[in-house]
Amino acid sequence: MQSKENLLTCTEEVRVRFNETDPLGIVWHGHYIVYFEDGREAFGREHGLTYLDIQKAGFVTPIVKSTCEHFLPLKYGETFRIVTTFVNSRSAKLIYTYELFNQDDQLVCSGETIQVFLDSNGSLCLYNPEFFQAWKDKMGL
């Protein structure tokens, strides 16, 4: 279990674009997974764990599981916050949780993604890659 004081989070503000909405003017459900990606990208930039850093170390991190629960709709032109939190695990995985809040600070949706490490041969890493363990140590995880 991860304690509250060493949670790594990132908050990113996004505006709903016209092309993300359906004919009813609400965000199409598939775009929430893209918003999760926006959150991961912002998290990586803020905390020094970007996809380019991972690639430079010789790894890729495909998503093996994603979940998304919808509570309220987002509409064209609205802004919302994506709060992305890294969930520390002893396993060689990247686990992130997401909470999206609308302009009224209401929870719009929440979710989680799990990514694994594959080396340059496409083999699954069962132990934390050295660069990732060094990053975790640096972050106090």
Termini separation comes to: 11 Å
Largest beta-sheet characterization:
5 strands, antiparallel
* Radius of gyration from CA coordinates: 16 Å
Mean pLDDT score, rounded?
95
Number of strands: 5
Q: Uncertain spans, ≥5 residues at pLDDT below 50?
A: none
Question: What would your notes on this structure say?
Answer:
Keywords: Hydrolase. This is Acyl-CoA thioesterase. Pfam families: 4HBT_2. Belongs to the 4-hydroxybenzoyl-CoA thioesterase family. InterPro entries: 4-hydroxybenzoyl-CoA_TE (IPR050563), HB-CoA_thioesterase_AS (IPR008272), HotDog_dom_sf (IPR029069), YbgC/YbaW (IPR006684). The chain has about 140 residues and is of the alpha+beta class. The protein is about 25% helix and about 30% strand. It has 3 helices and 5 strands, in the order E-H-H-E-E-E-E-H. The protein has a 5-stranded antiparallel beta sheet with strand order 1-3-4-5-2, covered by helices on one side. A hairpin with a 5-residue loop joins strand 4 and strand 5. The longest helix is centred in the N-terminal third of the chain and has 17 residues, at about 30-45. The model has no long low-confidence stretch (mean pLDDT about 95).
